[in-house]
Specification:
By secondary structure, the chain is of the alpha+beta class. The protein is 34% helix and 25% strand.
């Protein structure tokens, strides 16, 4: 095996459990990689974060996107340890909407900086081969590759959908904002595995 591809080959393949289909917006039907898997394989390969790999946030800003929209941009530098020495900085730039224009008006996300940082990390990590098989189109895909369907993950039942809708009305949550937080367009798109998460979050609104 080519020694230069050592880490690339260790990091390139993404299990089906770490892939997630994008169910709404312009990227609907494409597939993304779960961030936590990226961090797990980096830890498996190099050691705990801060010991075998790390990153620094070099710049973060909010830019005007027009019509009230604001875009968060985060720049990071990724480092990993090889032969007892730290690599040079591997750059990554990510972005996310801080203020988005929606049907009911402008919506501000308090997760925008976190999501932009996650995006920046994914950009830097792909440079060393994390998820490379997907990005090269050899497996299931991301927003940068042609469409190909993943095996369907079950969504919630009609009864669960009705329960969530009633609970959302009861706690007077902004459904459009809540759908955006969940990454869906309506209750029927919610994965069954995320049902308890949605219930827990709605229940938490009672005390707000």
């Amino acid at each position: 095996m080519n020694e230069n591809l050592k880490y690339w080959n260790q990091l390139k393949d993404v299990p089906a459990t770490a892939q997630k289909k994008i169910k709404g917006g312009r990227l609907q039907g494409m597939t993304d990689i779960k961030p936590q898997w990226r961090y797990m394989v980096m830890t498996e390969t190099f050691g705990p974060i801060g010991v075998g790999w790390k990153y620094t946030v070099d710049d973060k800003r909010i830019d005007d996107g027009g019509l009230g929209v604001q875009i968060v941009t985060v720049s990071i530098s990724l480092y990993y340890k090889h032969g007892g020495e730290w690599s040079d900085a591997i750059p990554g730039v990510g972005s996310s909407e801080f203020t988005a224009k929606e049907k009911n008006g402008l919506y501000t996300s308090d997760d925008a900086f976190k999501m932009a940082t996650t995006d920046a990390l994914s950009v830097a990590l792909k440079m060393i081969g994390v998820g490379a098989t997907i990005y090269m189109g050899g497996a299931d895909l991301t927003k940068n590759t042609p469409k190909k369907e993943l095996p369907p993950e079950p969504t919630i039942t009609d009864s669960q959908s009705a329960n969530l809708d009633a609970l959302a009305d009861e706690v007077k949550v902004n459904k459009a904002a809540f759908f955006k937080w969940l990454g869906i367009n309506n209750w029927s798109e919610l994965y069954a595995s995320n049902y308890e998460k949605a219930v827990k979050e709605l229940e938490a609104q009672r005390n707000n």
